[in-house]
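Section 3.1: Structural characterization of target chains.
Under the original work plan, the team committed to producing a structural model for every single-chain target entering the pipeline before any wet-lab resources were allocated. The record below documents one such target. The sequence was received from the expression subgroup and is listed exactly as submitted; it comprises 311 residues.
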Amino acid sequence: KAGKHVLCTKPLGRTAAEAKQMLDMVEKAGIMGGYLEDLCYTPKFNKSLASVKGGSLGRILWAKSREAHPGPHSNWFWNKEQSGGGAIVDLGCHCIEIARNYIGKDVRPVEVMCWAATQVHPIDAEDNAIGMVKYANGAIGQFEVSWCFRGGMDLRDEVMGTEGTIWINNFLRTGFDMFSTGKEGGYVAEKAESNTGWLFPVGDEVNELGYNHMFTDMFEAIDQKREPFETFYDGYIVNAIIDAAYASAKSGIWEPVKIDDWRGSTEDNSGNKFAEFDEQYYLIKEEILPHGDRKLILKDKKTGDVIVRDL
């Protein structure tokens, strides 16, 4: 009502309904709603996403993101009523939006299959979960989240396309290893459980976790009167996927992603898109043998026969 722009950290709401209410309010007021999803602003993510958008990996088939650590710092995270859930709503929101960026924000998430359990902590919410998100173009987004992981914070992303693969280790064991007896020193890195033994510090946490780029984007968006890279609408879509994940964890089956206000593509491109060699054959694989010779594995479009052709 005051006409002030609003920034909100992840997740936008405990549920999609809450997130949609927030989205509607900022849009009605004509102000910017910036979704503070820091892990979609890290230097490695920015570089990898540019490669994906530039076509280096071809058509994206699968994107996986993992976040695991010993659990949140604040007590309210552990209260299901206050937080809306456990590891899925806390960490899964990161992973879901990372994969969604790689696959394409314009591609509609269709359904979710999720396993979740409370394995370690005496709480009402899940402390471990694994889920798959199926998209309208046939791509799969996968998330792995845990509040039970020991040894620090594990942030990893993988992307697989028809022409390439990306593997990213974002935080734990990124090339900076240090041993200490713990006689002196204190803080090592976010979610580190000890300051003794082999440790894995991070050179610049604020930058490596995306905060610099995130707030720069938000403030520039305000100055330039444009939308930021991550908006309240993105947060709403993430919450809709999370709702489906919780429904699937309860039912044990694929559950639909219910989006009342979808603004992306309405096309269903989930059909097979095989690589063609020529008018007669599909190309299954091209291979270089140990002695240097090359061969093709081809499939006849009409007969279905698979043959080998030496080059």
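The CA atoms of residues 162 and 250 lie 34 Å apart.
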